[in-house]
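ugh ok so i messed up the first submission bc i forgot one of the chains. this is the corrected input, ALL of the components this time, i swear. 638 residues overall. if the numbers dont match what u have on ur side tell me asap before i send this to the collaborators (the ones from the other lab, u know who)
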Amino acid sequence: MSENLIEFNNISKFFGKVIALKNVTMRLKKGEIMCLLGDNGAGKSTLIKTLAGVHKPDEGEIVIEGKKTFFDSPKDALDIGIGTVYQDLALVPLMSVTRNFFMGREPLKGLPFFKTFDIEKANQIAAERMGQIGIDVRDPSQAVGTMSGGERQCLAISRAIYFGAKVLVLDEPTSALGVHQASMVLKYVVKAASQGLAVILITHNVHHAYPVGNSFTVLNRGKSLGTFNKKDISREELLGMMAGGEELDKLEVELEEMNRINN
Amino acid sequence: MSEKAKSIKSKKVSGQDERLKEVSKLRLLLNRPELGAVGGAVLVFIFFGIVAGDTGMFSAYGTLNFLDVSANLGIIAIAAAMLMIGGEFDLSIGSMIGFAGICIAIPAIYWGWPLWLSIIFAFAMAVLVGYFNGILVVRTGLPSFIVTLAMLFILRGATLAITRLITGRTQVPGLRVLIENDPIAWMFATDTFKWLFTWLGSMNLIALRTDGTPLATGIPPSVIWFIAATLFATWILMKTRYGNWIFASGGDKNGATNVGVPVGRVKISLFIGTAVAATIFATIQVLDAGSADTMRGNLKELEAIAAAVVGGCLLTGGYGSAIGAAFGALIFGTVSMGIFYTDVDTDWFKVFLGAMMLIAVVFNNYIRKRVTESK
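and heres the new structure output, hopefully the right one now
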């Protein structure tokens, strides 16, 4: 299985007595989108932070392009090509598109000790990159606050890719979005994968995950219930596995009951 | 007919487009943080031009007077604005002014240090105080409002106690004689462009004393420092990587950290900036007065923050401008001096200061909503 771009083998993470993750294994090839599904408290956040280098796994190993790797910090993970887009996106609404795009990694020009932020170059790259994903930024110096939620998500993803991500980790990219905006983001995710990136899409929304995912890993109470290829599992089965399935069924029954009484 | 109609229609459309562009330009201007302060300053000048235009307020002497007051406030207001953009407050600026004053005066007068060494000592202490403020805020995660409020009391108390311990009083006079021939003091104590004022005087263009020398002798050092500080801060904020980090640190601390901005270091350096600005303020005033007073700079921190807020800084951080803060200081300085030239009782100055701030906050809040509103 050396063709895997990235492998997380038997990752475990404990916080004192609490077992946050136990023996979670995920393997991704280039161009693959794996959806990580799980209800609240399933361990998704811990897993993301382990992928991003914020937490160190207590057990297990991370293998990237056949090499065993350790992260000491988020920066290590970034350098090795794991780009994490958190739910809060790390965007500042009051700052311009350009200033956000290059936040922390500003291109410089000029003499040593008098290096200045190369705004012209930054503006040009930002506008170009946003144009590629079909977002027409009329003015890259406009504040990010004027963009829609989907556009912001795309900006954050585009930024991660521009700065060298080989593996994209997306934390709930569609949770705060409407249908139209969500589909815009998902379309972009598929496009990114088709260009050779591996994508880990974390979500609790099966309806968003199922159309775009190649494989699905379901987390429940810190353990992986397994990884399934798309052809082996249906949307309903996935939903059922996410612990939420049963409860949704129950809810449906209860609502019908209420309707009957009201009528 | 259809051809004609089409051409009219297309003309109409292009006409609309042009108008849209104009609107967006106006919008762009409206979205600048310093707009309120610049507009306010214009209004203030118009007001005093009408009310006090013939009283000598706008003579060379009068102008330099209110510019001097504005510039002194401006030096600390700009540093306070940068810190606010970085998402923090410094309430210890005023106390730092008093502290820096005695850091210059006591070594120079009582310990026999040369004046230049005392001045360097004061700046070194400022860096220490700023670093301490910063590291406390960054490490503890406590609101800087509380941390620097504590520092406000600690510094003012220490200034008073140490001065009384060493000198037995609360003022340290006798500095004026040390300024001459000092290698550093001239930077804080020399009027510039004297030749210009002498020439203007000789041409009878500005008011003269009875001995024939001009009443206004030159541009005071505070004004030069103020202009330099405004340009430097604006350059940093708009043109450098560090400037982008300041906006990012104040706009979203966690987000900035996640993309690799050294938020802690940025904030600590900004705290050092406010303490150093307070020391520049103190040095200019101490050398001008020839004495250090333990109560010097009292309440200046609030005026500095007020000027920064009028200048468009948001209290929540991440937004603002140095030019705005400079104009905010100009407004306060002009009114505080100009009020002497009118019939209005000077007691009303504080009322004005408060009202101005309220209007500014409401206005800036509106601007922020415009900037961040979704399409």
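quick check: Chain A has nine helices and twelve strands. that seems consistent at least. Chain A has a mean pLDDT of 85.
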